[in-house]
Amino acid sequence: MAFKTLYTVVVADDEDELREAVCRMIPWHELGFRLVGSASNGLDALQLVEQLEPDLLLTDIRMPFISGIELARQVREVRPAMNIAFLSGYDDFEYAKQAIQYNIISYMLKPLTMEGLAAELRIIRHKIDAQFEMLRQAGANASAPDMRAAFVMPLVLDDYADAEDASHAEASARQAGLLRDEDDRPYYTVMVSTLLDESGANRTASSFVATVETLAAKYLRSVSFFTSGKVVSVLLGNPSDFDEYLHILADEIPQVASRVLGRRCRIGVSRTVRSLTELHGAYREAMEALRQSDTAESGAQFIGDLAPAAKGGELLCKRALDAIDEHYADADLSLVSLSGMLDVSPNHLSACIKKHAGETFINILIGKRMEAARELIASSPLKIQQIAQQCGYTDQHYFSYCFKKYCGESPNAMRRRLDAQRAEAAR
Description:
alpha/beta; Rossmann fold; Alpha-Beta Plaits; 4 domains; five-stranded parallel sheet; 17 helices; 10 strands
């Protein structure tokens, strides 16, 4: 069967024979897939996901350095639109189901024959087809007008702050079904989404409302409407919801728009506000963020990222690199924690680092840690385990793997070579 779309796949498994057999023996094209990469551990798999942006990651759940569960969590930070299929031992099955929130499309129990894997890949292919079709047809299947959208539209588009007090607005919101009860007092963020063609012309249709709502529902409460060539969404949640999920949603919508709809997507995002009467101000912030975004690229622009201290992309990148230099020894340093230090969104920070440093955050962090480790091996008597800890690694084996991959030799081999060179020079 000839497929119009071949979904791209990365395979990750630490069992070399099994991984190589899967890569070599599965008839990928016949099943509607294109194999683009393979990895023997979670770290390499994560780097391949960032580099290749596949549609599917097929991974063992027990992986060296980064477990399958942790890999799924980190993948969601950078490629939330990607699906993951787990290969799992029987004893890991309940453990694997903990990752259901991370776009897990299939659980496969080992041992698995090539015929069994091929059959499951056919099922996965149909599931992804269905996902894509659902998102394409979301607008056509839209239900009757939403009372909640009719309620929030004037609050968003017109300045009602002086005309309505907050308590009256909340009572009306409960009647419209936006709020559950008197104890339901969420924070709000306004997000404006547009679709662009290759020339940059606006191609947003009202049907895109349903697509945005489908994706937003995975993470936050929301209500969206279409107006003047854009989809406006009011997102509801508590501060921790927004901290954890807003940047993921703002990444997933453009990824889906590109892969499924064949359009670039630009998004403007406001700050969070506490009251319904502040929605108009939030909408104006979202529109300002959208106006200042780069229409040549897909992605989201958060109004908070336009603050004077962060306005220049080169300046922000320099601040990020300086922060990595200062905090690389922190084992918990991540793109999300770094963005918190710099008071910008992870989306914006990641884009700035890639644009101005020419590399991903994770590769820059690993490079900094490896250069620091190289210096300590050359100039200090510290044990390798101590050096690993000083460079942000709690697992010495993980550190040694990264070091050999980066430097071409193991930490112990480098130390022996340098000691031999010093001994030779001293003769």
